[in-house]
């Protein structure tokens, strides 16, 4: 069976906020650790991966070495479109072109142009040795940290859209080759990232349908983040429920009415009430975590009913994800991909 790492392009997407960048970084680390020269591509105007690796010397649109065999680059779609039009315009400066009405008109009148140019740049990274001056050389694997599902499907569908319009010239040639890359099971793979929530799992299912409709492809795997463990047996849950249903201690007034010393009774009852409150809080927390874990596993079952290769990752406890945590996630992914 071909690993998801044994491709030229690996696209990672899913609902926003589910941890796509973390998984893309972990897959990049895993690929680099297995000897593959790898680059992780972020789309937008912000570079997050270099910060994770403690690299501060970065430039927009320039490949940055993160560690041995692993690099990153950020592609800004607006900048990519401007550079492409500038190449077509010859010596016209970027400042003049960006401020011109023609550029603004073209960007507005050609929906999907930014997405196509972005995808062309990603395709160029998969093509092996390139011009001198690149900082990292050719790559065995390009990991695309794609935008959220809807935008990602728009990017992936842009070559077909523009290929139907531009039938000759350099654009036509590039879109054909890009389309071949995206449709080839031996050259590209698609991974969805989700949380075990109803909305995120539904979006993963919609991603599968969208890939099938646009590219005739399916998901190689679905990575489900932040899973809680199912810690309690049926018998343990009965004991927890018994704690929640235990009778309340008698009030100080009731104890005093039966002849107990007032101060001693108040102190005893205060201690009992405090212990009762702690027990109730622990029982409620345990029940809530169990119910949450059970709901998450029900969402996993939705994915498995579609015969997806589902990779579950446990919730990482901490104030934030650092490089060590991402390396731990990579180690877990190594067992599944």
How far the N terminus sits from the C terminus, by CA atoms, comes to 10 Å
The major β-sheet equals: 8 strands, mixed
**Could you estimate the helical fraction of the residues in percent?**
40-55%
Any idea how many domains? 2
> Radius of gyration over alpha carbons?
27 Å
Overview of this structure, please?
The protein has 337 residues and is α/β, with parallel strands linked by helices. Helix 9 (198-215) links the parallel strand 6 (188-195) and strand 7 (221-227). It is 54% helix and 14% strand. The N and C termini lie close together (10 Å). The protein has two domains: 9-228 and 315-334, Rossmann fold, CATH 3.40.50; 234-290. An eight-stranded mixed β-sheet has the order 3-4-2-5-1-6-7-8, with helices on both faces. The longest helix is centred in the C-terminal third of the chain and has 44 residues, at 262-305.
List the helices and strands and how they pair.
Layout: E1 9-14, H1 20-33, E2 38-43, H2 49-52, E3 64-67, E4 70-75, H3 77-88, H4 94-99, H5 101-109, H6 113-125, E5 141-145, H7 149-165, H8 170-183, E6 188-195, H9 198-215, E7 221-227, H10 234-245, H11 252-257, H12 262-305, E8 310-314, H13 323-334
Parallel strand pairs: 1-5, 1-6, 2-4, 2-5, 6-7, 7-8
Antiparallel strand pairs: 3-4
Helix pairs in contact: 1-13, 3-6, 6-7, 6-8, 7-8, 7-9, 9-12, 10-12
